[in-house]
């Protein structure tokens, strides 16, 4: 997957057009048999090979059949064939409209098979993503989000995650009022639906104007809950923290985060043990908070033990993270300005000042240990840098001691 209720209409067909039940079963079975004979076992998640254009055309014809059971089987076949094959996603782009039609049938099996087929068609295919929305998929998807059927709800959320990866679709999806529904899923859905919902919200957040819509739906308590329970190095934590970093540019979000029990702590835990990208987002969120109102947010950040994670980033983070971490450390001490010329504004002095203000022996001890390790690593890095410079600038055809004597004699 990418990192991407309206009344259902009755499926009505003329009785004379429907073949006998045995024909339905035979047609559906023969379709699977043809694919299997070509080396495409439906039980394996491998890219299908050897499917002729005639069979592709036959599948496209069956998905438009007047017999519901045949359409369902064809949808399942399209889902299988497009699961891992970008090539077949192109071949079956003509199935988008009939599959979208199936989303409105009064058959849960038809809804589910069509939704899953559309989901696979949309993965890593911008054209199909746009076509699915253009064909009218949003209305039934909204219905599934509000459905009491948890399976349909989960599949609908997953489809929105993929569809929202398209820049063309983002404003259409948000204008349809889906953002509050995604926040409801984030609150009440199953774990997988919650994960997909927060990632879909992140996708939508990159469109101008959507951040305020997301904030208005009050997602922070549910995002904090998700952060508490997910693995801090996961993609879920990364997207969740990235969304928080964007939202904390609003005072409403900063207030919500500090008011939520364990809100700041959840961000600090990502700062300490998240993936490199997650740690950068957590750092950015905390820095934005402190820069917006240092007097208001300095204490909550210090209280949750942010210092050790910041110290580690000053040494082991990316150049951007190192700079941001040092800036935040300066903001977190009593005064963000140098005390005097006798106490230069070095990182060690900044941290020493901070350590003296930390409450609790555990936090203080951990911060002191981190400072000691930070100084040690910094010294080792400086020594390696000097050694590398010596290798670069020392002529290879001259002994080192001769160079030294020549310099000293001048």
UniProtKB/TrEMBL annotation:
Residues 69-335 form the U-box domain. Residues 13-25 have a biased composition (Low complexity). Signal peptide: none annotated. SUPFAM superfamilies: ARM repeat (SSF48371). ARM repeats lie at residues 94-136. SMART domains: ARM. Keywords: Repeat, Ubl conjugation pathway. Residues 1-25 are annotated as: Disordered. This is OLC1v1010644C1. It comes from Oldenlandia corymbosa var. corymbosa.
